[in-house]
């Protein structure tokens, strides 16, 4: 009888040890990924203090994006290593360990894509740039909620960017950002959110929207920018 | 949608006036169904809903599993005389098997093709409860404990598709060793109760026996490095220690006072002794 119990507990101990070992390996790799993410973030922070120069603007921004993309190349290799360590179909067993850095990277990819071509990145593009799969069935993938949380980080970065663009003399940028973030907001409103992290972060999005609207308003009212076409007013009396 | 902007504009009819929020309004009004962002998000919404729905469906089954398991445990506690024993054990067994055939099969179907770890939290609580009931039954039947593999195979389902001669499809409910061990930790609470009940009906020998069994489990739990343990596990071990202490006190009382007190009164005395050290135990069914 007692050997039975011992056996059960011994095999449990093996299971724990095994898990611990894998977690340790993951931790080392995730640390590398975090380092890369920080490097990219530091490069991209330069957008906030680039003085506006109508001719060279795109060139300067493009330079940062190119640098960032170089590091994304390393990130791809790191994710490939991570994918090798995580056993098949156990993505969500260890998900907690890389979800935050993945969210951060989704945000960084989205920012780069926005700076380059001014559109909202799609999930499959992010997956491609990070070197992971888009769908769970295919293996080590990008979790949808991580991707969406990454997009929500983008909105707060862009609201800062709108403010700093004005400081640096670029009055077009905030208008463009306002359009973009409003569309993003409209997109998020289509989701049915549970009372979770995503919901909480989404609730913060409206403050970013508001902040950007204020910047646009300031620009318009001072005539620094032609007013956005006033929309058809529905009498609300 | 434009309610916020609209309120701000109330009373103004000057079309040239610039208002805060104009840009947002303009953008929102220009968005239609063909907007590329809207279309993207429609897809995301569908995926997110599918995941949440699946989670909720599993969670509902989980609650049913928890409730039925708890009832089976109560049923097993009703064994008070030898003649009733086999009837109750058989009834419990068939209900346990029935759950494996129905409720768990539903969970297995939901998990089919998914990453089970993603939904593990949805059915963990019920599964632990089930392990508790299962091991309790096993203990009462054989005085033993079975290992996890038996349960795993019971929760693996092979179905042969009706329309073809292809090989059978395998679906299963993932049982992690942690679930099983936590179930065993809960089991000790039931064993404590059983021990005290046995005393009340005058079955002294199985009192000692159960006490020894729990002690072995306790020792086994002590053998771990606490690093890998969660808070939850530590709490359970604490409860386990309490249950064990109660049982040991009861056994002590039987031993030292067994000869001086009539048998029918011994039970009361021993139970009081057992409770002396006990704070309240937390064995009520909790859904979360």
Automatic annotation (TrEMBL), chain A:
<dbReference type="GO" id="GO:0043565">
    <property type="term" value="F:sequence-specific DNA binding"/>
</dbReference>
<dbReference type="GO" id="GO:0016070">
    <property type="term" value="P:RNA metabolic process"/>
</dbReference>
<keyword id="KW-0963">Cytoplasm</keyword>
<comment type="function">
    <text>Exhibits both single-stranded and double-stranded endoribonuclease activity. May act as an activator of RNA-induced silencing complex (RISC) by facilitating endonucleolytic cleavage of the siRNA passenger strand.</text>
</comment>
<keyword id="KW-0460">Magnesium</keyword>
<keyword id="KW-0540">Nuclease</keyword>
<dbReference type="InterPro" id="IPR033956">
    <property type="entry name" value="Translin"/>
</dbReference>
<keyword id="KW-0255">Endonuclease</keyword>
<keyword id="KW-0694">RNA-binding</keyword>
<protein>
    <recommendedName>
        <fullName>Translin</fullName>
    </recommendedName>
</protein>
<comment type="similarity">
    <text>Belongs to the translin family.</text>
</comment>
<dbReference type="Pfam" id="PF01997">
    <property type="entry name" value="Translin"/>
</dbReference>
<dbReference type="GO" id="GO:0046872">
    <property type="term" value="F:metal ion binding"/>
</dbReference>
<dbReference type="InterPro" id="IPR002848">
    <property type="entry name" value="Translin_fam"/>
</dbReference>
<keyword id="KW-0539">Nucleus</keyword>
<dbReference type="InterPro" id="IPR036081">
    <property type="entry name" value="Translin_sf"/>
</dbReference>
<dbReference type="InterPro" id="IPR016069">
    <property type="entry name" value="Translin_C"/>
</dbReference>
<comment type="function">
    <text>DNA-binding protein that specifically recognizes consensus sequences at the breakpoint junctions in chromosomal translocations, mostly involving immunoglobulin (Ig)/T-cell receptor gene segments. Seems to recognize single-stranded DNA ends generated by staggered breaks occurring at recombination hot spots.</text>
</comment>
<dbReference type="GO" id="GO:0004519">
    <property type="term" value="F:endonuclease activity"/>
</dbReference>
<keyword id="KW-0378">Hydrolase</keyword>
<dbReference type="GO" id="GO:0005737">
    <property type="term" value="C:cytoplasm"/>
</dbReference>
<dbReference type="GO" id="GO:0003723">
    <property type="term" value="F:RNA binding"/>
</dbReference>
From TrEMBL, chain B:
<protein>
    <submittedName>
        <fullName>Translin-associated protein X</fullName>
    </submittedName>
</protein>
<keyword id="KW-0963">Cytoplasm</keyword>
<dbReference type="GO" id="GO:0005737">
    <property type="term" value="C:cytoplasm"/>
</dbReference>
<keyword id="KW-0539">Nucleus</keyword>
<dbReference type="GO" id="GO:0043565">
    <property type="term" value="F:sequence-specific DNA binding"/>
</dbReference>
<feature type="compositionally biased region" description="Basic residues">
    <location>
        <begin position="1"/>
        <end position="12"/>
    </location>
</feature>
<feature type="binding site">
    <location>
        <position position="190"/>
    </location>
    <ligand>
        <name>Mg(2+)</name>
    </ligand>
</feature>
<dbReference type="InterPro" id="IPR036081">
    <property type="entry name" value="Translin_sf"/>
</dbReference>
<keyword id="KW-0479">Metal-binding</keyword>
<dbReference type="GO" id="GO:0005634">
    <property type="term" value="C:nucleus"/>
</dbReference>
<dbReference type="InterPro" id="IPR002848">
    <property type="entry name" value="Translin_fam"/>
</dbReference>
<comment type="similarity">
    <text>Belongs to the translin family.</text>
</comment>
<dbReference type="InterPro" id="IPR016068">
    <property type="entry name" value="Translin_N"/>
</dbReference>
<dbReference type="GO" id="GO:0046872">
    <property type="term" value="F:metal ion binding"/>
</dbReference>
<feature type="binding site">
    <location>
        <position position="132"/>
    </location>
    <ligand>
        <name>Mg(2+)</name>
    </ligand>
</feature>
<keyword id="KW-0460">Magnesium</keyword>
<dbReference type="Pfam" id="PF01997">
    <property type="entry name" value="Translin"/>
</dbReference>
<dbReference type="InterPro" id="IPR016069">
    <property type="entry name" value="Translin_C"/>
</dbReference>
<feature type="region of interest" description="Disordered">
    <location>
        <begin position="1"/>
        <end position="20"/>
    </location>
</feature>
